[in-house]
């Protein structure tokens, strides 16, 4: 005896494009984010405030410097805020594309479930990086808003441009680190990534002091780091000292990292999952 | 010209899979017809899962031909995966989401509209008897419930072909029967089932036709009954003895009863006497003065077929 088929047949379809496929993962990411956003929301509001108070207001109170030595900032607070905004865009990303990526590919096999249907590796990577971009956008928006009452923004348009710049900085770190994590067999390497990668970048890429204070060749080294490009871009925008040439170099450098990281991420994850 | 039999759900010819220098699948021919329940039976490492991953269009073919729903997985992977259902051996459920959310987000991967997925989720929860668990977190479910949820998830796109890799491995007997019951119903609805198992009772219960795999090759093919008729006797008389001493075997015992059966298999703790009338054989064994610690007369199973074909047991 035949029983009724389950519901009306609704066969799936292959995605029309990489974007179409990635958008099919939107409900996964919003559902997952609804479970975790409270913890990250509190920290993304409180942490910037603590940094601004400690480094900008209290420590900055001891810094009496000519604006010329502070890359045009009229106070240490105004100098350090864009540095910290850019640095936070980086640190947010390190948290999002290390252990969580390993979790989804190795521990929880979430990616295998996502690609059992019509979706494939490019959709999964684009959706995950899209979520990271969203996280960076939220934390940067909160940070830029929280510091507004301190009078550190020279112009409204500078702040408006500093916001998308944070997403670019975030993705410039996210794509290559994602690629690294996607192929990693063992999570112990992450400790090194944080200690020898993130923390030195955070401290020495010009967020807290002008890189000109470093002796050669350290200054050159600092100027070559992606975070310095991000810090300088953000600082030019919030201080209103924008120069087209250097700004374009920053954008091209960071954009290049996004493209290279994307290519490497697809390669590494496909090599891992499609066997 | 198409190589595929018309209407074949799966067509494989000389299908191969290698990992580096290791060949996991060494040239198999398979055709699965619409509506049938087809099984791959074999021990761990026989190449069943590698075959299933190629059929699921997630693992590239190393050699030979493979067509799924008439399509080539090398070029039409997404279109194939959009129309099949996959229940993997390892649960890949999202433990941070609820039962309902797991089904909903998965349905969205297939490009189905939200309203349609919501409707489908309710029906599927009903089908796998998890409606009252809709809001539970996956972590709080029993093993059997998780497996039913995975089966429900694999049905979200109303697949024509459902692939199940070891669907009841690790479940207790009661949970296994619940899963079997659900799979029977799907079969009645016309869904083509393809499953791997190393449980001979599961293969006997669920499949119309199966292939026995060993070391990457198909060693026999047919219905469970036909395979038993072809490769074994009607009944088996089992004689249990203390486990043979290190270096020793029960071979001498086997020789003493060899003429009482068509065939005798020697296992470390047992002799299996293949015969048409188990009780009669058992009586003669006792007449000869053998004193096994336990005896059992039973019907032949696929386990016996496997033992005959490979000289090894399925579950070791």
From TrEMBL, chain B:
GO terms for cellular component: plasma membrane. Keywords: ATP-binding, Cell membrane, Membrane, Nucleotide-binding, Translocase, Transport. It is found in: Cell membrane. Signal peptide: none annotated. Its main location: membrane. Residues 10-240 form the ABC transporter domain. GO terms for molecular function: ATP binding; ATP hydrolysis activity. PROSITE patterns: ABC_TRANSPORTER_1, ABC_TRANSPORTER_2. Belongs to the ABC transporter superfamily. This is Unannotated protein.
């Amino acid at each position: 005896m035949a029983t009724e088929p389950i519901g009306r047949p609704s066969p799936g379809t292959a995605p029309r494009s990489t974007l179409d496929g990635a958008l099919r993962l939107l409900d996964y990411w919003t559902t997952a984010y609804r479970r975790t956003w409270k913890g990250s929301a509190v920290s993304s509001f409180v942490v910037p405030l603590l940094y601004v108070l400690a480094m900008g207001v209290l420590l900055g109170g001891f810094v009496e410097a000519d604006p010329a030595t502070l890359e045009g900032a009229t106070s240490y607070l105004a100098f350090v805020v864009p540095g910290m905004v850019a640095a936070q865009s980086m640190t947010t990303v390190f948290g999002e594309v290390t252990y969580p990526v390993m979790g989804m590919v190795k521990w929880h096999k979430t990616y295998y479930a996502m690609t059992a249907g019509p979706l494939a590796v490019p959709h999964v990577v684009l959706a995950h990086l899209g979520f990271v971009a969203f996280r960076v956008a939220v934390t940067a928006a909160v940070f830029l808003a929280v510091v507004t009452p301190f009078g550190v923004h020279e112009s409204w348009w500078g702040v408006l441009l500093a916001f998308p710049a944070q997403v670019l900085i975030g993705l410039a770190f996210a794509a290559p680190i994602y690629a690294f994590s996607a192929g990693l067999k063992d999570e112990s390497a992450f400790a090194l990534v944080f200690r020898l990668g993130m923390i030195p970048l955070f401290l020495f890429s010009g967020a807290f002091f002008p890189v000109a204070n470093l002796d050669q060749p350290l200054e050159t080294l600092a100027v070559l780091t992606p975070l310095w490009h991000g810090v300088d871009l953000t600082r030019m925008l919030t201080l209103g000292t924008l120069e087209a040439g250097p700004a374009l170099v920053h954008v091209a450098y960071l954009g290049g990292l996004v493209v290279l990281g994307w290519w490497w991420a697809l390669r590494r994850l496909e090599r891992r999952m499609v066997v | 010209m198409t190589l595929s039999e018309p209407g074949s759900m799966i067509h494989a010819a000389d299908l191969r899979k290698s990992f580096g220098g290791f060949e996991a699948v060494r040239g198999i021919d398979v055709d699965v017809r619409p509506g049938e329940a087809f099984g791959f039976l074999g021990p761990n490492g026989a190449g069943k899962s590698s075959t299933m991953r190629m059929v699921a269009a997630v693992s590239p073919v190393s050699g030979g031909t493979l067509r799924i729903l008439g399509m080539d997985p090398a070029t039409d992977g997404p279109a194939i995966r959009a129309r099949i259902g996959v229940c993997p051996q390892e649960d890949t459920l999202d433990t941070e989401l609820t039962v309902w959310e797991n089904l909903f987000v998965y349905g969205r991967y297939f490009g189905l509209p939200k309203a349609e997925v919501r409707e489908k989720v309710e029906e599927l929860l009903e089908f796998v008897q998890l409606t009252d668990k809709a809001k539970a977190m996956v972590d709080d479910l029993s093993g059997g419930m998780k497996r039913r949820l995975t089966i429900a998830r694999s049905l979200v796109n109303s697949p024509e072909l459902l692939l199940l890799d070891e669907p009841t491995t690790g479940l207790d007997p009661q949970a296994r029967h619940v899963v079997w019951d659900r799979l029977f119903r799907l079969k009645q609805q016309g869904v083509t089932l393809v499953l791997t198992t190393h449980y001979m009772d599961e293969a006997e219960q669920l499949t119309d036709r199966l292939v026995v795999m060993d070391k990457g090759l198909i060693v026999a093919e047919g219905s469970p009954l036909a395979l038993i008729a072809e490769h074994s006797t009607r009944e088996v008389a089992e004689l249990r003895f203390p486990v043979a001493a290190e270096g020793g075997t029960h071979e001498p015992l086997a020789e003493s009863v060899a003429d009482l059966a068509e065939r005798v298999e020697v296992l470390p703790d047992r002799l299996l006497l293949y015969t048409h009338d188990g009780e009669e054989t058992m009586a003669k064994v006792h007449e000869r003065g053998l004193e096994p610690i336990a005896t059992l007369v039973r019907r032949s199973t696929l386990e016996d077929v496997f033992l005959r074909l490979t000289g090894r047991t399925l579950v070791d």
